[in-house]
Amino acid sequence: MKLDCLFLIKYGEIALKGGNRKFFLNKLKTNIKCQLKNIPNKIIIKWGRIYLYIDSENKEFAEKTLGNVLGIISYSFAYRIPKDINEIKKHALRLAREKEGHNFKIDARRQDKTFPHNSYEIACILGEEILKNIPDLKVNLYYPDWIINIEIREQAYLYSSEKNGPGGLPAGCSGKGLLLLSGGIDSPAAGYLMARRGLSVSSIYFHTYPYTSDKALDKVKTLHETLGNFIPKSALHIIDFTKIQLEIKSQANPDEITLLSRACMMRIASLIAHKNNYSCLITGESLGQVASQTIESLSFTNSQTEFTVIRPLIGMDKEEIITIAKRIGTYEISILPFADCCTIFAPEHPLIRPELKQITESFNKLQLGDMLLKASENAEVLHL
Ligand code: ATP
Ligand code: MG
Q1: For ligand 1, is residue 245 a contact (CB within 6 Å)?
Q2: Minimal CA–CA distance to 164: which of 312, 63, 79?
Q3: Is residue 300 within 8 Å of residue 309, measured between CB atoms?
Q4: Which of 18, 225, 262, 313 could form a disulfide with 286 if both were Cys (CB 3.0 to 4.6 A apart)?
Q5: Residue 318: helix, strand or coil by DSSP?
Q6: Rounded distance, CA 193 to CA 199, Å?
Q7: Does the C-beta of 205 come closer than 6 Å to ligand 1?
Q8: What is the pLDDT of residues 46-65, one digit of tens each?
């Protein structure tokens, strides 16, 4: 274990957390370790930065992984050098020689106030040194092609090419949520957004075999694994939904089928949430997207659970949701053509504005209590 490679990591919102900062930082540290899959590492948290030391042969893997750790706003591969201005000049020049583009900027920060030059002076000294040796370069503070950062702390840290992390809060610091994960584009994006607000997101999928094929289930598993790039340690609960779906189809008014199966999903998800201490439900619904996502329909599905239902996509349009799905790598999986139960059992003319009292009566008339309980008890659970 050489631990000869250093990443300097910046966190955003956690810095504002006052007395709770330690809790958030510890969560972030645990998540970094978990997402690095325990490659040899050492993490030190100090003075507003996280220092991650790893072996240089794992540099590429670490670089890719840090881009997925929620709570990180940026990270850079960094050189640790002695706090000596001549040493710093030498290394800055070496870095500058590797860069492409003419316009550059030096960004200096002096954390250690005993260092004899202040931030402005350090930037001037390094800028001059670079211009003296590579005369066709130009300083451009507003539109630089590249930046060299220098931070004077207990040592000097030099880095350039800072990469963006996803930002937000570390997954798990806001509690545990249960995502209703279908094979579509929306729900994975919804899960990601709530993980980025600190929820540890596990998923539940309602499978209607053989009406939905095992390929549809595999697709959901792959989506769940892809979300796992951002969310350490989450579970996927798989519910056999076929009997319930068929019961609804045989008993209910065709135009109420979709809403009644949604209500069943809410009920079962609530039972699973109780059993596993999840504190809220998350769905990928977006206002007006389909009949089951009007205010009236959402009010009905809400009424079937005592849990808070979080719908982070409620005000987004499809293009915005697709942008998120592409960014997190779920889009390409979601568009694979394996139909979900909602599509197969969808009525031709679904109810758009259900009357709460009436649809609740229809639901109660079905008397599905035992079936819902049984389905929740027989859930299959996969752990990442
Ligand atoms: P998505 O909304 O995920 O793109 P979709 O558009 O096909 O899929 P909708 O009919 O819009 O699904 O369903 C609304 C929400 O209900 C989904 O976002 C998801 O949270 C939940 N949901 C629907 N079907 C299922 C299912 N089979 N298993 C788990 N959750 C489901
Ligand atoms: Mg949808």
Answers
A1: no
A2: 63
A3: no
A4: 313
A5: helix
A6: 9
A7: yes
A8: 988 999 999 999 999 999 99
- Per-residue model confidence as pLDDT tens digits over 243-254: 999 999 999 999
One-letter identity of residue 151? E
**Most informative mutation of 178, 180, 310 for ligand 1 (most atoms within 8 A of CB):** 180
Q: Which atom of ligand 1 is nearest to the CA of 186?
A: 4
Q: Is the CB of 189 under 6 A from ligand 1?
A: no
Look at ligand 1, atom 7, and give the residue with the nearest C-alpha.
184
β-pairing verdict for 163-164 and 72-81: antiparallel
* pLDDT tens profile 160-203: 989 999 999 999 999 999 999 999 999 999 999 999 999 999 99
Residue 199, SS3?
strand
What letter represents residue 295's amino acid?
I
Measured in Å, residue 185 CA sits from the centre of ligand 2 at: 7
202 closest CA partner among 182, 176, 241: 176
Cβ(191) – ligand 1 distance below 6 Å:
no
> Which residue minimizes the CA distance to atom 17 of ligand 1?
284
What does the block give as tokens for 172?
């798990």
3-class secondary structure, 345: coil
Residue bearing the CA closest to ligand 1, atom 30: 180
